[in-house]
Amino acid sequence: MDALTSVLEFRDVTFRPNALLQLCGVTGVNLALGRGEIALVSLEEGREESPLAVMAQGLEMPEHGCVSFNGEDWSQLTPSRISNLRGRIRRVYQHYGWISNLDIMENICLAELYHSGRNDSDVEDEARALARGFGVDPIPNGRPARGNSMVLRKLEWVRAFMGTPELILLECPCRGASKADGPGLARAMHEIAGKGAAVLWLEDDPRVIDCPEIAAARRYRMDGETLMAV
Predict the structure, then answer these.
(1) In the chain, what are the domain boundaries?
(2) pTM (2 decimals)?
């Protein structure tokens, strides 16, 4: 990647609300994140369903403007290229983000195994090590529907930090977790950003936004449909 190319860029992006997806609209969004940069976006109460993460991942296209990943406009790519690029992105979903017919470990490792070509044992060992860092040991067996919701939330963090992602999307990642676990997530985020990953963190909880461990992040807030630098 060219050193001047942003990992993620929103250029004059307007997105209209979609009733089926229950997403909010945004207007004229401009944001660029390079390697190792972290942006924390404060969401307004009642407008937590931001479309920024789904557009960053190329799952929804803007009405106007463009969203690019590593300098490539999602709307101009072939399906095979889209799949390849999405393999470099990890995401913690605002709501439930588990595949019901896979076990918890299979859920955690699926994307990394599929996109990296690493062997199963190495990926599972990495998952266990990351989980221990978040206070989960061992990783529970069985399907996610039978798991503890607070533990599952921390295991979503594990899944997001697996391998060497180039972009991490965090949508209200502390929702459902213990407040005491927030600083650990922030430290892990800074550590992976130090290895070159760009991070977009969308957050609606003022207690998380004010967490001193994420103070070094570039800060923005949504004001209606407009993204404002803080």
Answers:
(1) 8-229
(2) 0.94
